[in-house]
Design brief:
By secondary structure, this protein is α/β, with parallel strands linked by helices. The protein has eight helices and 32 strands. The strands form five sheets. Strands 11, 12, 13, 14, 15, 17, 18, 20, 24, 27 and 30 form an eleven-stranded mixed β-sheet that branches. Strands 8-6-29-26-23-19-16-10-9 form a nine-stranded mixed β-sheet, covered by helices on one side. Strands 1-32-5-4-3-2 form a six-stranded antiparallel β-sheet.
Length: 528
Amino acid sequence: MNSWSFRKISRSLSGVPEKRKTGAMFIVTIFCFFAFSTLALGIVFLSQIHLKLNGLRKNSVLMDYASENGIKDGFHDLVKALGSITSPRVISKDDYERWRESIAKVQLRLVEETLERSFPIVIFKTEEELMWKSQTNCFFESFTEAENFFCVQFRLEIDSEGWLKSLPHRRKSSLESRIDISAGHVPLSFFPLLINKNLDSEEKRHFEKENDVQIIRPSQDHSSAQVSFADEPLIPKEADGLIEKAMNINLFRPQNLPPSKLRLVLGLEESDAPVPDGVYLIQNDLGLGGIYVQGDVKEMVTAIEEDYQVISFRMEKDSWVLKFSPSRSKTLFSSPSGLLSFNLVPLGIVIINGKVESLGGGRVDASGEVRLVQDEEIPSLLSGVNLTLVASEKITITSHLIRQGVTWQDGIPYLKEKAGQLVIFSTGKDLWQDEERDAGIAIGVNAPDGVQVHASLTAQGDGFRIDGKNQDIRLVGSLQTTEYVAQGNRLKIFAQDSADFLNAASLSPETKQPVLFLTCFEILVWKE
């Protein structure tokens, strides 16, 4: 049987005709085409969304840039105005009185005359597709008036709008700042560094280049002037106001106070004999005044004992110790004649008709003796206590004078509590006779390296000098001086906040002439 016959018989035996499978591949192909087409269209759609979002994001960023440019232009205009003014600027008594009387009526005139700008200040600029507009407005905030000066605080607001030429939408942002302006016989402690000399531009640049002085202001203070130069003498040689406060008396001129009246004020027997050398606690029917010292002080030490501020005086033969506690309202005064106790606290002014050969901080030992400490950085100025030291002759600082409660972080001092202030003033003139004296403030040759002085220093006569070699002085406060003699040493000044200025303004020497002074320019908040 041949093969053809076999296949034929087999098909006939099955009885079921064979069906052909057709169309399955076509359906699979259509499905795949649909799936890939959908995916491709989805990718195209997502790409368009992505491009549109990127475009919106780009436009948003550009509008942010434009709005930010408005803030920067307004801020730079203010900084330019601040940098162009002479601060401090000597003013007449008439101008001072005019401003003081009219500050409540024409509040913005003072800041407009100081900055040489009229508010509102409008700036409009365009650059390619970017456009922006800023408007700076000034608002009166507060007015603080003292006996011989006043301080005005203003709030500055820079409102900015930024947009693109092709879009109607605008982006807004604002910057708030404050500016403090003082006028009158301003406390000298307001000036971080004042050189009491009239120098030309070249001499000013030479001074700043040759002297290694670094001024660190509070973090948000953008006051432009680092070193202030006095066009006219601003540091007085008299301390009449401080003497009057310390002794509870009124003086026309200290030189007109006869020895008999001075002895009466000091609690001595009235006579024409000179006042004996010694330390006197002023006391009368009005309570306790300050401290008066007649003669040279060999060593003066400040210390803290519990909640007492301690001040010791060692002269040629005897020693005196003053302790007072504001929280307890108690004062102890130890002298060669005995111990006095009061349920009052004295005024924190020490008047010395003489020189101080050694001034520094220390501690009270177990025997009750006050000792100078040079090898440790220990607090010796009680927190919240204001002290003013006025001497007719030279004052030499030989150790740290550190305020209680100060901590250092990344090389910056921070105060946790109410600061208080120490003022040291060397006048260069005898307190009771119209005679010149050798004056100035010096960091002694034996002072420890890196000595800390938390004080406002005002030096007449030979000015301020740093003896010794390779010293790094940290002054937390301010310096006003007729001369500055660094001798290759370095000085870093940590300027105080304006609130600290006002806290102790009544116990600080004041400018000899009325001035207009930019106290502070501080950034508050940036809003978008």
